[in-house]
């Protein structure tokens, strides 16, 4: 008898908050570790918010930047030793978003996901779990109401009408040991 497949759902942020950076960390851990349940996720959220409690109102209203997300990851991966992270592509320049997705695809597997940053018009952090270069789709484990996947042509590296700008230099790989 085969074991039934249980579909995991990402933890969802509130409609009006800017905590997608925090949720991207929690959802990365949740996606990579089958034992990372709601109790651990709630505890991690409290720990992350206690790192800079005086800035919570700012994070809530304005969101987080790469420096905040990496600082939080440094602190939480000291306790959550199963996980490591690295910022990749800081100094890389891509010709187009297809090249970016092809390079990012080389870093993602069953033990690694990517946290990526979207710019205008969305301004959001999300978790990429898979990239299919053949069908030109990226698969997301997202805290907002994003689709499970998005087409490559919905993105661009520059600000353009009807596309989401990618901040490629804000790409973080989360690895489960």
Detailed description of the structure:
This protein starts with 19 loop residues before the first helix and ends with a strand. It is globular, with a radius of gyration of 16 Å. Helix 1 runs antiparallel to helix 2 (38-51). With 177 residues, the chain is an alpha+beta fold. A hairpin with an 8-residue loop joins strand 4 (137-140) and strand 5. Strands 1, 2, 3, 4, 5, 6 and 7 form a seven-stranded mixed sheet that branches. It has helices at residues 20-32, 38-51, 56-62, 66-79, 97-105; strands at residues 83-88, 112-118, 124-132, 137-140, 149-151, 155-156, 164-176. It contains five helices and seven strands.
Topology (elements, then pairings):
Blueprint: H1 20-32, H2 38-51, H3 56-62, H4 66-79, E1 83-88, H5 97-105, E2 112-118, E3 124-132, E4 137-140, E5 149-151, E6 155-156, E7 164-176
Parallel strand pairs: 6-7
Antiparallel strand pairs: 1-7, 2-3, 2-7, 3-4, 4-5
């Amino acid at each position: 008898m085969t074991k039934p497949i249980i579909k995991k759902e990402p933890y969802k942020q509130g409609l009006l908050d800017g905590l997608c950076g925090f949720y991207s960390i929690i959802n990365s851990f949740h996606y990579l570790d089958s034992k990372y349940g709601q109790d651990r996720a709630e505890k991690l959220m409290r720990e992350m918010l206690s790192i800079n409690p005086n800035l919570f109102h700012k994070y809530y209203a304005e969101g987080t930047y790469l420096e905040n997300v990496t600082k939080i990851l440094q602190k939480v991966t000291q306790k959550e030793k199963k996980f490591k992270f690295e910022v990749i592509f800081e100094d890389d320049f891509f010709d187009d978003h297809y090249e970016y997705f092809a390079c990012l695809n080389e870093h993602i597997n069953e033990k690694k996901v990517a946290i990526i940053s979207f710019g205008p018009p969305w301004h959001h952090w999300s978790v990429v779990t898979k990239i299919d270069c053949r069908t030109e789709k990226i698969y997301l484990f997202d805290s907002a109401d994003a689709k499970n996947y998005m087409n490559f042509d919905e993105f661009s590296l520059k600000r353009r009408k009807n596309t989401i700008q990618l901040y490629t230099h804000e790409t973080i790989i989360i690895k489960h040991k």
